[in-house]
Amino acid sequence: MDNEGFSQQVDDYRRIEKAIRYLEGHFKSQPALDKIAESAHLSKYHFNRLFKRWAGISPIQFLQHLTLEYTKEKLIESGTLLETSLEAGLSGPSRLHDLFVTFEAMTPGEYKQMGADLKIEYGFHPTPFGQCLLAVTDRGICHLGFVDRNEDSVAFGWLHHNWPEAKFVENRTRTRPVVNRIFRLERNRKFRPFHLLLKGTNFQVNVWRALLTIPRGRVLSYQDIAAYIGRPKAFRAAANAVAVNPVGYLIPCHRVIAKSGQIQRYRWGTVRKKVILGWEATRI
Question: Is-contact 234 256, C-beta < 8 A?
Fold first, then answer.
């Protein structure tokens, strides 16, 4: 898919996001499809067409993946798989994602330098889940985050805060092909792995490594992640590490949800987290 195609998906995503927000506020009344479509300023016919173009399935089918019953069921399935893997001494419920994402963590000395002597090239680009900010170095991707409308400066400010001593250069020519590769991955598994450069504490890095073992279509709880890294009582610290994941989507922090099955706590918005999970569930 080219940049123009992603731009169309951004427009579609914004309307779908409005519809999901409407559902969040009116879930008790179980609104009919025409009411949901109206919230996105579309007729039922055009809303169905938009949804199928973006998600590949109907709105009703998509919304079934976001119900509490569905997420609880997936938690149980994933938890059982995780327990089996740990008992067998395996590395996790799936190594599939690891085949496409590798990373290196900065050394303690590099961490203290806060990116000194590091050149970071960045760009803002459309994706199926709204605008994103991608930043790369010669050693790998160091940042991927979603950006709400008119908040480019806020997004860049967060990036700069993490690497205050780095040299920043806007270079969409370099970052555009990387974004295209990331969001075409579902249709072409022949891509070479994405390499990431991460800056974090040992605990944070271990949590981010654990996130890479969660396959698409699965979800784990914060307690599951803490248990996976051998720190079962540190689930709050694990949740905090998940929350500051610097490379969204590739390190799938969106696949971690509350033990109750609630989809919440996502730096780039609960609605976006729901939409990504629903979108992935249709592609299992």
Answer: no
